[in-house]
Amino acid sequence: MNGDFVFLDELVPGLRWDAKYATWDNFTGKPVDGYAANRVVGTRALGEALANVQEKAAARGFGLLVWDGYRPQRAVDRFLRWSRQPEDGRTKPRHYPNIDRAGMVEKGYVAARSGHSRGSTVDLTLYHLDTGELAAMGGGHDLMDPVSHHGAPGITRTEARNREHLRSVMEACGFRPYEYEWWHYTLEDEPYPDTYFDFPVAPTAPDDNP
Fold first, then answer.
1. For all residues of the chain together, what is the average pLDDT?
2. Is 181 a residue of the active site?
């Protein structure tokens, strides 16, 4: 693993994570190429910024749950191949109920190059520190639908307020949002703005990983 990349939970004590693409619980319906461990990796700069986010979120009664950070290019390539395969309907109701697979690319939910592969983009949500329950956000991770856009109509006042809590603490700590996905943020001052990495997310992080 590149020496400037870390497991985010090791740099941010108390961070919760659920690496969706290392599991069967994602829009492809199976673990994705490049995710050999249920861990979330990112640049050290990303981790340090998230530590600041965690502190600000805690002051509002929230903790952070991270779904994805660094994403190998091979995983992005797998998404594109999957989008061209015949529909089997297994994940459509949950993740893309109102579009077909090709629409994921056309509408900007899946791209040939992802900011995640640069190492300083993160998918995350909030949970309530007092109960451990996830904050209501008006839709889950990778719901590819207009309801996931910032400012989307059709969500409750509580859901809109929780989205605003997340956006407020992320922007205060140097992140910019992605308007189509309430959970997706990129570090403004990212250290590798033009580099798309492809080393795997592995159970350990030996210095000699490619």
1. 95
2. yes
Q: Residue 105's closest CA among 177, 180, 32, 200?
A: 180
What phi and psi values does residue 163 have, to the nearest 5 degrees? -60, -40
The rounded distance, in Å, linking the Cα atoms of 121 and 68 is: 8
d(CA 75, CA 88): 20
Cα distances from 12 to residues 2, 25, 51, in angstroms, run 19, 24, 5
Taking phi first (over 0 means left), then psi (-120 to 50 degrees means alpha), and beta for anything else, what does residue 56 get?
alpha
Instruction: State residue 205's pLDDT score.
Output: 54
The one catalytic residue in 55, 133, 179, 181 is 181
The token pair that represents 23 in the structure block: 């599991």
pLDDT (tens digit per residue) in 144-174: 999 999 999 999 999 999 999 999 999 999 9
Q: In which residue are the tokens 């693993």 written? A: 1
Name beta bridge partners: 68: 123
Residues ≥6 apart with Cβ < 8 Å to 136: 156, 158, 159, 162
User: Are the C-beta atoms of residues 192 and 119 closer than 8 Å to each other?
Assistant: yes
Strands 181-187 and 121-128: antiparallel
47: left (phi over 0), alpha (psi -120 to 50) or beta: alpha
